[in-house]
Amino acid sequence: MTEPLLVLDNIKKSYGAIEALKGISFSIGKGEVVALLGDNGAGKSTLVKIIAGGLAPSSGKMVFEGKPFQAKSPSEAKEAGIETVYQDLSLCTNVDVVANFFMGRELTRSVLGIPVLDERRMEAQVAEALASAGTRIPSLRTKVEHLSGGQRQAIELNRFVHWGGKLVLLDEPFAALGVEQTRRGLEMIRHVASQGIGVVIITHIMQQAFQVADRIVVIRQGVVAGDVARKDTSPDAVIAMITGESLTGAGSAG
Amino acid sequence: MNPRYRRILEFILDNLVWFMLLAVLVIFSATIPHYFQIGIFANIVEQSSVLGVMAIGLALVIISGHMDLSVESVAALSAMVTGILFCSAGIGLGIQFTPAWMAVPVSLLGGILVGGLIGALNGYLVVKVKMSAFIVTLAAFIWVRGLVVAVSGGRSAQDLAPAIRWLGIQRLAGVPLTAWVAILCFVGFSFVMAKTRFGRHLIMIGGNEAAAFRAGIKVDRILMLAFVLAGATAALAGWLLAIRTSGATANLGTGMLFNAFAAVVIGGVSLKGGVGALPGVYAGVLLLSSINTAINLMGLPAHYTQVIHGLLVLAAVLLDTAKHSIRQRLA
């Protein structure tokens, strides 16, 4: 494995008496794609939110690029280079495609010393990014509420590819995509990883995990139930880890 | 659909309330005697100034997905503070400055400070304590009005200092300076909403607060600022009201909240948040005062204004639904 980009060390998260995460430890290397698998309620989304700064862990340490790291907010995580695509779409449907693409990072130009939104430059960059990804949207000035689910998800995927960063977290990014768009999305992920960006992808679809991931990490009942290289395992073995039939690498039953 | 036709249609949909205003003015001018006069139009603009400025702050908060019911009471408090300090009759203390015009910035800043503070308190309770904006600002609507009655003892202040009154009397292009203050506010805030990051972020927060937060937008800070601005503009409206009436009474401005809401909704702002622009709100305010003026000229009892305002709000919401379905077909 290449040098670790992010190391999670015994991350715990509890809500009152309920322990959602009971001590998660694994690491992600630069340019590595890790598929995070697990049954509903296993704690995958909670873990992603902790890394992305949306939730604070109850205990545990994270090391990002060799330094202790704990984002207090999504904006801090973004500054550190961590991009996130959530399962429920993170678009503002009441504004247009360009505004969504540049959400929180709007370009401005100075007019009489006042920073004014530079719409033309932003639109040109979005047009370029979407064209190079092969996504067609009739008008970039259309409000997102008038676009289809697939088009929306394409915008989100293109957004993270464009902004890149150092680590990308994808929480079920293909839920609303068609076959062809999913294939292109998986290609995008490999392309991003080939630039040395670490990728964590949560998915329910075994086939996708085996298509795109270098390593598969299974979470079950808040602990890591398995951490294996893709080439050393099979879908059946992974399913066994998810459902808890196999004891290899399984944590305490809690 | 060809792009040119589409662009024209979108333009009409975006500015529908302006076309309505134009249509109403044309119809009134044609059917009501003496309506078509420069003086009448100047009067409409003048009448719109207080309500207009109040509607700006209210619109900002509604666009961000929240609500501010306290604007009317905040305006009354600001008017009362100005009245008590700078009126020479009634409960006025009649404070004087040399030079006399110093009273203008001092009274303005004093009012805005009071409004901004109440806005900050509302914002703090909504954003940090996570209380419902409806409840927080309903409470402020009640306690701020109570404060107005308490500090005035239920009495009024009259005879505002001439240096301040001057703003309400001096005219530029036929319109008093106070109305120009309102127009400047609309131009300034429209620019902020359409062209700056703050405005863009406010609209996005109104559309999807979680998405804006995840995208790294500092949601708390921006919402806080929106509430402070709503308080400050309401206070500015109160200051203008004090100038218009040359003083302040304990029940000054009661009922304005509903007119402000009506103007905001007629202007195309959705109460669900995330939708609307300030030029439309100004058109909404002008539309309301055009109708008031028409009712006055026709000699109808003033009670009819309320009936018409209510129906207008319903019409605006219906129109909004129609606009939405047309847009969906466009995309």
What would you say this structure looks like, in words?
The complex is a heterodimer of chains A (254) and B (331). Chain A has eight helices and twelve strands. Chain A is α/β, with parallel strands linked by helices and 254 residues long. The longest helix of chain A is centred in the C-terminal third of the chain and has 16 residues, at 179-194. Chain B has a domain at 48-253. The longest helix of chain B has 28 residues, at 303-330. Chain B is globular, with a radius of gyration of 20 Å. The A-B interface holds A 52, 54, 73-75, 78-79, 84, 86, 89-95, 99, 103-106, 108, 114-117, 138, 142-143, 146-147 and B 195-197, 200-201, 203-204, 206-208, 210-218, 274-275, 327-328, 330-331.
SSE layout and pairing:
The complex is a heterodimer of chains A (254) and B (331).
Chain A: E1 4-15, E2 18-29, E3 33-37, H1 44-51, E4 59-64, E5 67-68, H2 74-80, E6 82-85, H3 97-101, E7 108-111, E8 114-117, H4 119-133, H5 149-163, E9 167-171, H6 179-194, E10 198-202, H7 206-212, E11 215-220, E12 223-229, H8 235-243
Parallel strand pairs in A: 3-10, 3-11, 6-9, 9-10
Antiparallel strand pairs in A: 1-2, 1-4, 4-5, 7-8, 11-12
Helix pairs in contact in A: 5-6
Chain B: H1 3-14, H2 16-31, H3 38-63, H4 71-86, E1 87-90, H5 103-128, H6 133-152, E2 157-160, H7 162-169, E3 171-172, E4 175-176, H8 177-195, H9 197-207, H10 209-214, H11 219-245, E5 247-248, H12 256-266, H13 278-298, H14 303-330
Antiparallel strand pairs in B: 1-2, 2-5, 3-4
Helix pairs in contact in B: 2-13, 3-8, 3-11, 3-12, 3-13, 4-5, 4-6, 4-11, 5-6, 5-11, 8-9, 9-11, 12-13, 12-14, 13-14
Mean pLDDT of chain A: 84
**SSE topology string of chain B:** HHHHEHHEHEEHHHHEHHH
Greatest interface by residues involved: A-B, 31 and 25 residues
Q: Main beta sheet of chain B: strand number and arrangement? A: 3 strands, antiparallel
Q: Number of DSSP strands of chain A? A: 12
Q: How do the SSEs of chain A run, as a string of H and E?
A: EEEHEEHEHEEHHEHEHEEH
Q: What characteristic shape of chain A results from the CA principal axes?
A: globular
Distance between termini of chain B? 10 Å
What is the C-level CATH assignment of chain A?
Alpha Beta
